[in-house]
Amino acid sequence: MKPTETLHKLPGIIARDARSKISGRIVGGDDATDGLAPYQISLQTDLLGNNLHICGGSIISDQWIVTAAHCIDEVPTENLTIVVGTNSLSNDGQRYELQKCISHENFSRETVKNDIGICKVSTNITYGEKIQPIKLPSSDVEAGKKALLTGWGYTNFKARRAPDNLQKAILTTQTLKQCNRNLRAFKTILPIGEKQVCAYAGRGTGGCPGDSGGPLAINGTLIGVVSFGVPCGKGYDDVFTKVYAYVDWIRGKM
């Protein structure tokens, strides 16, 4: 397979199915302050010979991270590593190899449902000021709440530009009714269900390719995993896997 063909098959870089308007997923964000999201990880692959960022994720223990299923289900685990403890992709931080990755058994690329997975590191993650786990939720998320999105996704979708510095944006959680109405033109992924959560920041801001698998957080609790969005920053809701719906699944697999 040619390098360019491989690149276009990598999760989080380019949408990989017929629904070309749906991105694997921050445009309109700002540089995150150092240590703002100490749970943030960069999921990287060496399939092109270099360590290339493909998705985000979150530290949930010293052995496990959570990300999107579409980030890990088609890439061999031996070709994946994570980087923690840095806001800069050019500053490696601490790199860890992965022992295994588990995608949700009911994950569907057609409906983008159950888009969640976890990976175990080969050696325990060493915590520090800039490396900390994020809490799993103990209650469902309410609509109308401000949530923090972080990631290294494209800041300019047309130019396919990914930032070196971690980006942040504040989104507002939406009701399912609001979300389904806003996304009504994209029937192949509807309806958005109870195990998903939508968030919105207005036209010009939102998740983009490379943000996939990353965290949506409220008060240091992981409420969502970036799943997908329609073209970046075009005024549509971003869709996340609702972590609260999968807490038992996560703990059962750890």
From TrEMBL:
Where does the protein principally reside? Answer: secreted
Its recorded reaction(s) are:
Preferential cleavage: Arg-|-Xaa, Lys-|-Xaa
The entry's localization annotation reads: Secreted
Sorted alphabetically, the keyword list is: Disulfide bond, Hydrolase, Protease, Secreted, Serine protease
**Does this entry carry the keyword Phosphoprotein?**
no
CDD domains for this protein: Tryp_SPc (cd00190)
Which residues are in the Peptidase S1 domain?
Answer: 26-254
> What name appears for this protein in its UniProt entry?
trypsin
- What organism is listed for this UniProt entry? Pieris macdunnoughi
Which residues, by range, are in coiled-coil regions? none
Enzyme Commission code(s) on record: 3.4.21.4
Family indicated by similarity: Belongs to the peptidase S1 family.
- Gene Ontology terms: cellular component: extracellular region
Instruction: Write one Gene Ontology MF term.
Output: serine-type endopeptidase activity
Any matching Pfam family: Trypsin
What biological processes does GO assign it?
A: protein processing
Cross-referenced PANTHER family, in alphabetical order? PEPTIDASE S1 DOMAIN-CONTAINING PROTEIN, POLYSERASE-RELATED
Concerning SMART domains, the annotation shows: Tryp_SPc
Which InterPro entries does this UniProt record tie to the protein? Peptidase_S1, Peptidase_S1_PA, Peptidase_S1_PA_chymotrypsin, Peptidase_S1A, Trypsin_dom, TRYPSIN_HIS, TRYPSIN_SER
Annotated SUPFAM superfamilies: Trypsin-like serine proteases
